[in-house]
Design goal:
The complex is a heterodimer of chains A (265) and B (192). With 265 residues, chain A is mainly alpha-helical. Chain A contains nine helices and two strands. Chain A has a two-stranded antiparallel ribbon. In chain A, helix 1 runs antiparallel to helix 2. Chain A starts with 7 loop residues before the first helix and ends with a strand. In chain B, 26% of the residues lie in helices and 18% in strands. Chain B contains five helices and eight strands, in the order E-H-E-E-H-E-H-E-H-E-H-E-E. Classes of the chains: A mainly alpha (265), B alpha/beta (192).
Chain lengths: 265, 192
C-alpha cells in the first residue's frame, strides 16, 4: 500500500473551516467561538504530540517503553471511568471496579487479537499493539462506565421495589436481575448499533482512514470487521464483569441492599 | 439488638399476638422492623421458635418474618407480576376493598391507598409466622382501615404474630394486646 501523505500546508487549508466556524459563532453571538478555537488547538497539539511519541516508541521498539505507554493509557482510562460516575462506591472500590474490569477485559481481548488473529512479529510490535490497545481500551471504558452508571442510577431510583422484593424473601441476585439487564443493555447498545449500522449508515472512522490512506477497500473492510468483533467482545466482557462485581458489592451476604456503600460525588 | 441510635433492645412476641409500636417520627420504629427482618446491618440476633436469623439464609427468614414498608415498592409495571401465579390472588383483592379486575391493571393505575393495601396482601403467604407492618393503614379511610384490620385479625387467629407500627392510639387499642413505644432509642412497654 502506498500511503497518500499530506503536508502541514494541507492541514492549514483544512483549519480554515475551524476558523470560519469560530468567526461565524462570534458574529452570531453564540458564545462558542473561544471553545471551538481552544478545542481546535488542543487537537493539533495533542495529536501531533502523540504522533511524535508513537514514532519514537515504534523506532525504539523497546518492550519496557511499550509497557510504560500501555500503563499510562490504563491510568488515564481508570481516572476517566471513575470521574464519569455520578455515584461511586466508597473507598478503593470507587475506582477499583471500573478500572479493574476495564483492564482485565482490554488485556484479554488485546492478547487474544495479537496471538490469535493479527500475529505480528514480535507479538508486542508497537505498530500493532499500541493502536489496538488504544481502540479496545476506549470502547471497553465506555461500555464499563455507561453500565456502572446505569446500574447505580437504577438502584437509587428502583430502591423501594428492590427492597420490597428482598423483604418478601427474594435473594439479592434475583431482586437486582432487571436492573442488571438494563444496565448491561445501556453499556452494550453503542457497540451493537455500531456493528449493525456499519457500512450502511456510516463508514467507520478507521476504515475511512485506511481507504483515504490508500488501502484496498475490501482489505480495509476486513480490518474493520475484525475490529468491531474485538470491540464488542471487549465491551461485553468488561461491562458484564463490572456489573456483576457492582451488584455483589451493592448488596451483602445477608441479601440486603447496601446503598451506604455508594457515595454521591 | 442495636444499631446506631437504637437499642440495645430485647423483647419477645408470642404466636397470634399483636403488639403495637408507637413513637415519634424518626424515633427508629421503621429501623426496628427492618432490623428484625434483617434488612439493615445490626448487632445481635433474632430468634423464631429458637432458630436464629443469623443461622439461616436471609431470604428464608424474610419469608417467615415479613416486613411491609410504609411506602410500597413495585418492581414490575403490571400488578399481576407482584403476586404468585400459582395462587388465585385476584380473588383476595375484594378483602381489602379492591376490585378483582385490578389484577389486570398496570401498577400506575392504582391509587396510593390501593398500592398500600395490595402491598400488604402480597406479603401474606403460607410461610408467614411474623408480620412486621409499618403503618399499614396510614392515609386510609375508616372503611378500608376496617377491612385491613379484619384481614389482620384473620391472620392473628391463624397464629401469625404481628408487630404493628401505628400512629393511631385507637388502632393500637383495637388491634394490640401489648403496647410498646420507641423512646430515646429504647423500647418502653406502656401499660393501659
Amino acid at each position: 500500500m502506498n500511503p497518500h501523505l499530506i503536508g502541514y500546508n494541507d492541514l492549514a487549508v483544512a483549519s480554515i473551516l475551524v476558523v470560519l466556524n469560530a468567526v461565524l459563532t462570534w458574529v452570531l453571538n453564540l458564545g462558542l467561538s473561544r471553545t471551538i478555537l481552544i478545542a481546535g488547538v488542543r487537537s493539533v497539539v495533542q495529536l501531533l504530540l502523540v504522533g511524535l511519541v508513537l514514532k519514537t516508541v515504534f523506532a525504539l521498539a523497546s518492550p519496557l517503553l511499550i509497557a510504560v505507554v500501555a500503563l499510562a493509557m490504563f491510568a488515564m482510562a481508570s481516572y476517566e471511568i471513575g470521574s464519569r460516575q455520578e455515584r461511586r462506591f466508597a473507598g478503593v472500590w470507587g475506582y477499583g471496579i471500573g478500572a479493574g474490569t476495564t483492564m482485565l477485559a482490554t488485556l484479554l481481548v488485546t492478547v487474544f487479537a495479537l496471538l490469535g488473529t493479527l500475529r505480528p512479529v514480535p507479538w508486542y510490535a508497537p505498530q500493532v499493539l499500541i493502536p489496538l490497545l488504544g481502540i479496545i481500551l476506549g470502547n471497553v471504558m465506555n461500555g464499563v462506565s455507561v453500565s456502572l452508571n446505569a446500574l447505580s442510577t437504577a438502584v437509587m431510583r428502583e430502591r423501594p421495589g428492590v427492597e420490597a422484593r428482598l423483604a418478601l424473601g427474594t435473594d439479592r441476585y434475583t431482586a437486582l436481575k432487571p436492573l442488571q439487564r438494563s444496565a448491561l443493555r445501556s453499556g452494550m447498545i453503542p457497540i451493537i448499533n455500531q456493528m449493525s449500522a456499519a457500512g450502511v449508515i456510516t463508514l467507520p472512522g478507521m476504515m475511512t482512514g485506511q481507504i483515504l490512506a490508500g488501502m484496498d477497500p475490501l482489505e480495509a473492510a476486513k480490518y474493520q470487521i475484525l475490529l468491531l468483533f474485538l470491540l464488542s467482545g471487549g465491551a461485553a466482557l468488561g461491562a458484564l464483569a463490572a456489573v456483576y462485581i457492582a451488584i455483589w458489592r451493592i448488596t451483602d451476604e445477608r441479601d440486603r441492599l447496601r446503598l451506604d456503600r455508594l457515595v454521591l460525588r | 439488638m442495636s444499631r446506631l441510635h437504637l437499642g440495645p433492645i430485647d423483647f419477645s412476641l408470642l404466636p397470634g399476638e399483636c403488639v403495637s409500636v408507637a413513637g415519634k417520627s424518626g424515633a427508629g420504629k421503621s429501623v426496628l422492623l427492618r432490623i428484625i427482618a434483617d434488612l439493615d446491618p445490626h448487632e445481635g440476633d433474632t430468634l423464631l421458635d429458637g432458630a436464629a436469623c443469623s443461622g439461616m439464609p436471609a431470604p428464608k427468614w424474610r419469608r417467615m418474618v415479613t416486613y411491609v414498608a410504609a411506602e410500597s415498592g413495585w418492581w414490575d409495571e403490571r400488578v399481576a407480576a407482584h403476586f404468585s401465579p400459582a395462587t388465585d390472588f385476584a380473588a383476595l383483592f375484594p378483602t381489602v376493598g379492591i376490585s378483582a379486575e385490578a389484577s389486570a391493571w398496570p401498577v400506575a393505575r392504582l391509587s396510593t391507598g390501593e398500592r398500600q393495601r395490595l402491598a400488604l396482601l402480597r406479603a401474606l403467604g403460607p410461610e408467614n409466622r411474623v408480620l412486621l407492618l409499618d403503618e399499614p393503614t396510614s392515609g386510609l379511610d375508616a372503611e378500608n382501615t376496617g377491612l385491613v384490620e379484619a384481614l389482620l385479625r384473620g391472620r392473628l387467629s391463624l397464629g401469625t404474630a404481628i408487630l404493628l407500627v401505628t400512629h393511631d392510639p385507637e388502632q393500637a387499642t383495637r388491634m394490640a394486646s401489648r403496647y410498646l413505644e420507641v423512646r430515646g432509642g429504647q423500647l418502653v412497654e406502656e401499660t393501659r
